[in-house]
Automatic annotation (TrEMBL), chain A:
SUPFAM superfamilies: PRTase-like. Gene3D superfamilies: 3.40.50.2020. This is ComF family protein. It comes from Terrilactibacillus laevilacticus. Belongs to the ComF/GntX family. Pfam families: Pribosyltran. InterPro entries: ComF/GntX_DNA_util-trans, PRTase-like, PRTase_dom. Residues 220-262 form the Phosphoribosyltransferase domain. It comes from the Bacteria.
Automatic annotation (TrEMBL), chain B:
GO terms for molecular function: helicase activity. Keywords: ATP-binding, DNA-binding, Helicase, Hydrolase, Nucleotide-binding. This is DEAD/DEAH box helicase. Signal peptide: none annotated. Residues 319-461 form the Helicase C-terminal domain. Residues 135-287 form the Helicase ATP-binding domain. SUPFAM superfamilies: P-loop containing nucleoside triphosphate hydrolases. PROSITE patterns: HELICASE_ATP_BIND_1, HELICASE_CTER.
Length: 264, 461
């Protein structure tokens, strides 16, 4: 029996052996709330940005990618961000959850996504360029909850500016990154505040010229020659993540991919 | 500046972050002992057989349910910070946030000496009696219960009482669990008391004057007040969510001054009020007749068999269909109450296929809910399939009521009585008709019928 994180109604977990013998009070969303979230099917998502292609008209799709990504690939920031993984479409219900989680301070809401975010992380590992043996070894360690000295990905959450962090009290990307229970490397800093990204229009976002992100020089070694996994809450146009990837480029990572909770 | 702060903060408990004033100014007042700042969440340790346990308590909503607290590393105070998830919709309360109250001298309230009530209707003898009793009890700081049937005119009888108490310099609140009711009541009160300083508080409200003598509020918003009111009149005391929520009881409790009293208005008072009233420990009156002087319609029970199984195959019980067709020929609006949203949808589709009627369905999360209800009121749609959200506060003249699947556990006595109270509310058609369509009578159904019958008996029918 648990309380739903969103509607605070009492619901029962489906009974299985793990729950039968544990006393842990798991947190999560009730089935009624979960159906309102639209999960993006893995085999029908955009190859590059992880968008749900079933919701897109066929004319906007070209060999498994959406036209937005095509544009990115043709532009100057080609190849900066190799791929994005997204979990949910950013529908009205998700908007409500995100506004409570980001702006109103309900940090625990992220905890409800823990199992599914971890599942997505495993998918990221499976689709990575490691050998099958390395994958299997890492996944086994991950499943058992053991720490592993070689990480296939350096996990870098997107930062907030110091001012915003003081105001809000927490960084939502860090909270999401902590769900993976791996080592987190805060390698990027957000120097100056260019206004909230979520308050800007599409054209404004795409035209951001000055990069608000810069690399923290303490972590150059940690990034060098590694695969980097950026964590953010939402992928909207992809500008923010690409700016962050551009900031990392100085340290010469092997490649950069990203994981976001929503796409929209 | 001090005056402004005094006006805003007197009798309130607000978060420091919500304040429009500078922190230096507030600090100065705090040192002078005019305002008080307290931590949002208090921690205490209690001993358990298995060791010590930390218990958190929210200073604003009084929540002690430990499942509704969560700690995280806060970048503001650089510690593990706990926040309350119960009342976080009103702005999050954390360990490091401060709640501010005014503890200095109270501000000046307007005095009302002249007659201030411009309401010109008149009360029935029963209403007048209740109104007098209410005034008397509140004057001497005693609690009072008004147990009046649906459609007895509860709001009107408050007017004379409010006038007398305001003239005595009392500060009052009318609280109700529902936002709709506040919105509907505010213009009515404004019309009745044009010269009184009043304000309405509901989530998203704009019209919030400070230091007003008459406050209209939802029970949630009472959490913002702290020892402000002499009297709180709580309308629809048994309505969801007030009935189940300890937080709202706490809200009422802490919004009252130390010497204060409360009045309760309800058609179906919960047991913790009913019992003291019946045993004469709580003062009150019962109004068993409606304002038009006709008895309440007594519900009929009709057995419809295993309707759930039929509904799966889109089959409707024949007696229900027969009733519906017969009633629809009378050309009057029909409420069809159902226990849950899934049943609502199934029933609506089945009805759509089999009955030629203009109808609609409504549930709590329907975005077009208000438009649909207005349509129904205007008679554009004849039948409305709905969940229990419309069980109170909605008046449609000449309406008939069907409760489909009334044996469901969600329909308790209070809900059934309230739903039955939707019928026969107007003078043109005082009879109305209420039918329980059931698969086996439940105790709650019988209780509801007996409740209505006993009210009628007391009313002299």
């Amino acid at each position: 029996m648990s309380l739903c994180l969103w509607c605070q109604s009492i619901y029962a977990h489906p009974l299985d052996f793990r729950h039968l013998f544990s006393v842990s009070n798991q947190v999560g969303y009730c089935p009624q709330c979960l159906v309102k979230l639209e999960q993006i099917p893995a085999h029908q998502s955009c190859r590059l940005c992880g968008r749900d292609l079933t919701k897109l008209d066929a004319i906007y799709i070209k060999d498994g990618t959406c036209l937005d990504c095509k544009k990115w690939e043709e532009g100057p920031s080609h190849g900066l961000l190799e791929k994005n993984y997204a979990l949910y479409s950013y529908n009205d219900f998700m908007k409500e959850i995100m506004s409570a989680f980001k702006f109103r301070g309900d940090v625990l809401l992220a905890e409800g996504f823990k199992p599914i975010v971890q599942m997505l992380y495993k998918r990221v590992i499976k689709e990575s360029s490691l050998t099958w043996f390395e994958k299997a070894r890492y996944l086994f360690f991950y499943q058992m909850g053991w720490q592993f000295k070689e990480y296939p990905y350096v996990i870098v959450p997107l930062p907030l500016s110091q001012k915003r962090l003081k105001e809000r009290g927490y960084n939502q990307s860090v909270v999401l990154a902590e769900l993976l229970q791996q080592r987190i490397i805060p390698a990027i800093r957000r120097s100056e505040d260019g206004g909230k990204q979520s308050k800007k229009g599409r054209a404004e976002r795409l035209n951001t010229i000055q990069n608000p992100f810069r690399l923290d020089s303490d972590y150059t070694d940690a990034i060098y020659g590694q695969c980097v996994l950026l964590i953010d809450d939402i992928y909207t146009t992809g500008t923010t993540l690409r700016l962050a990837a551009a900031a990392l480029k100085v340290a010469k990572p092997k490649h950069v991919i990203s994981l976001t909770l929503c796409h929209g | 500046m001090t005056n402004e702060i005094q006006n805003l903060l007197y009798g309130k408990k607000l978060l420091l972050d919500e304040m429009p004033f500078s922190i230096q100014e507030l600090d100065r007042l705090c040192q002078n002992g005019l305002i008080e700042m307290a931590q949002g969440i208090v921690q205490s340790e209690i001993k358990r057989p298995w060791g010590k346990q930390t218990i958190h308590r929210c200073r604003r909503c009084g929540n002690t349910d430990q499942r509704l607290f969560h700690s995280y590393r806060c970048e503001k105070c650089h510690q593990d910070c706990t926040y309350c998830r119960k009342c976080f919709n009103m702005g999050v309360v954390k360990s490091c946030s401060k709640l501010v109250t005014w503890v200095g001298p109270p501000p000046k309230f307007l005095e009302y000496k002249m007659p201030i009530c411009e309401w010109t209707g008149h009360l029935s003898p029963r209403q007048a009696q209740a109104s007098e009793g209410l005034t008397k009890a509140l004057m001497s700081y005693e609690d009072y219960l008004i147990w009046a049937v649906c459609g007895a005119g509860k709001t009107e009888l408050l007017f004379p009482a409010i006038e007398k108490l305001l003239q005595d310099g009392r500060i009052m609140a009318i609280a109700t669990p529902r936002t709709d009711v506040v919105r509907e009541l505010y213009p009515r009160l404004n019309k009745a008391f044009p010269r009184v300083r009043m304000s309405a508080h509901y989530s998203g409200s704009q019209d919030t004057q400070d230091s007003s003598s008459l406050v209209l509020t939802t029970t949630h918003q009472l959490l913002r007040f702290y020892r402000y009111f002499d009297h709180i009149i709580i309308d629809e005391i048994d309505a969801f969510p007030f009935h189940h929520d300890a937080m709202l009881h706490y809200a009422v409790h802490q919004a009252c001054r130390l010497k204060s009293s409360r009045a309760y208005l309800s058609a179906t008072p919960p047991d913790d009020l009913k019992t003291p009233f019946l045993k004469n420990r709580l003062q009150g009156t019962r109004i068993p007749i409606r304002f038009h002087g006709h008895p309440l319609p007594v519900p009929k029970c009709i057995w419809i068999g295993n309707w759930k199984r039929g509904l799966k195959k889109s089959r409707l019980p024949s007696s229900f269909l027969k009733w519906l067709i017969k009633t629809s020929q009378l050309n009057c609006p029909i409420f069809i109450f159902v226990p849950s949203v899934t049943i609502l949808k199934n029933l609506f589709h089945a009805l759509k296929e089999q009955v030629d009627l203009s109808m609609d369905h409504v549930h709590a999360e329907d975005p077009n809910r208000h438009e649909k209800i207005t349509c129904f009121r205007q008679g554009k749609t004849q039948a409305l399939v709905t969940t229990t959200i419309l069980e109170r506060g909605v008046t449609v003249s000449r309406s008939r009521v069907a409760i489909f699947g009334s044996e469901d556990a969600i329909f308790d006595e209070a809900a059934l009585v309230q739903m039955a109270g939707r019928a026969g509310r107007s003078l043109e058609d005082p009879k109305g008709e209420v039918v329980f369509f059931h698969y086996g009578k439940t105790l709650e159904m019988m209780k509801a019928i007996n409740h209505i019958k006993s009210m009628n008996r007391e009313g002299g029918f």
